[in-house]
Amino acid sequence: MYDIENGKRFIEADSNCFQYMGRIDFDDPKRPVLIFPASTVETVFTGTSVGMIIKNIDMQEHCYFGAIIDGVQQAVTLKNSGEDELYILAEGLEDKEHTLVLFKRMAAAYYAEFAGIVVDGGAVLRNPERKYDYKLEVYGDSVSAGEVTEAIFYEGQCDPPHHSQYDNSHFGYPAILSRKLNAELHNIAQGGIALLDGTGYFCSDNLTGMLSCYDKLEYSPYKPTKQWDFTKYTPDCVIIAIGQNDSAPDPEAIKRPDYRRMWKDKYIEMLSDLMEKYPKAEFVLILTALRHDKTWDAAIDEIATEVNSPRVRHFLFTRNGDVTNGHPRATEQTEMAEELYVYLKSNIL
After folding, report:
1. Which of 71, 99, 183, 262 is most buried by a 10 A CB count?
2. Beta strands in the chain (DSSP E)
């Protein structure tokens, strides 16, 4: 448990000084739960210090949270106490106005139950009231979640040994793209996920696919699930980046006509549901720079052709599937984000 020092103030999570972004669980507005990568809490505060109070609902040993103060980023190692913990983010700041962005670095390794922040007793806080030009939504896997992006100097190489310390959604292409577009982002991304249950790598003892997660708010099979209310957020553009992990456990399945037809039908089922929920949104179907069998790109291209809608496009990166055997690093994620930015600005937004 935490102790708040004399002279400090606790600002609860439901204060109007906070601006939230992401598919977040607000069932208890005093304790919103950040679930998906790149979900954020922003505020502006005065004073010389700031801390955050978070309960780590962990599902693995190593959990990290992100904080950006005046543009300077830090990673915070979360405790596995199962209780509220106070994490001091900065002390000895100049006594002036500061910006604070708290964000979820990782995907379903943990849920972060945000209770609020601690500031100086005389601090003044305000909502940044950030105005966005667009709304963006992404459905993807570990690349979209920003896993292993901080393993710089491993560009084009396999991943180094790690325990999630290199995962950072801030440097994934969805977050980079959203910043370039000045777009609000809902990043529905999970490492290891494929389209279908029983395939991919997400939840190795209970393989769970995007078809079972895309319409969820809380989606981990290790915790009770909650449905998402799609009326709460309507994007201008939806990017679907699924197909990377779908070769597990059978890499040759997609080359068999019967399986290929079934897989495409299930993909179209999810796509059609989202198109119905978002009748004005544009859809971009992609795979990423991570190496993969190009048969999956061909299947996705067939899906776009079969759906035959001016709202659905298949996009290929210049180095699609050719960049790396490991997860794309921040530099390689930036390359993807820049290509998507040009494409979206030229063709959609």
Report:
1. 183
2. 8-12, 19-21, 33-34, 40-47, 50-58, 64-69, 72-77, 84-90, 96-104, 110-120, 125-126, 134-140, 183-189, 216-218, 226-227, 237-241, 282-285, 312-314
Q: DSSP letter for 299, please.
A: H
d(CA 297, CA 211): 19
- What letter does residue 338 receive in the DSSP assignment? H
pLDDT at 1 over 60: no
CA atoms in the 13 A half-sphere facing the CB of 98? 26
| Distance separating alpha carbons of residues 298 and 283, to the nearest angstrom | 17
Q: What local confidence, expressed as pLDDT, does residue 126 receive?
A: 98
Q: Report the alpha-carbon distance of residue 111 to residue 147 in Å, rounded.
A: 16
Please give the structure tokens belonging to residue 319: 């180095």
Span 91-141, pLDDT tens digits: 999 999 999 999 999 998 899 999 999 999 999 999 999 999 999 999 999
State the CB neighbour count (10 A cutoff) for residue 117: 28
CA distance 63 to 57: 10
CB contact at 8 A, 247 and 293: yes
Cβ contact 66:134 at 8 Å: no
Q: How far apart are CA 331 and CA 314, in angstroms?
A: 23
Which residues, 6 or more positions from 1, have their beta carbon under 8 angstroms from its beta carbon?
83, 84, 85
- Give the strand pairing for 40-47 and 19-21: antiparallel
Which parts of the chain fold into alpha helices (H)? 142-145, 173-181, 257-277, 295-307, 330-347
Q: Is 18 exposed, middle or buried (0-12, 13-18, 19+ CB in 10 A)?
A: buried
* Under 8 Å between Cβ of 200 and 244: no
Token pair in block for residue 99: 């910006």
Check the CA dihedral 93-94-95-100 and report its sign.
negative
- pTM over 0.85, yes/no: yes
Residue 2 reports pLDDT greater than 90: no
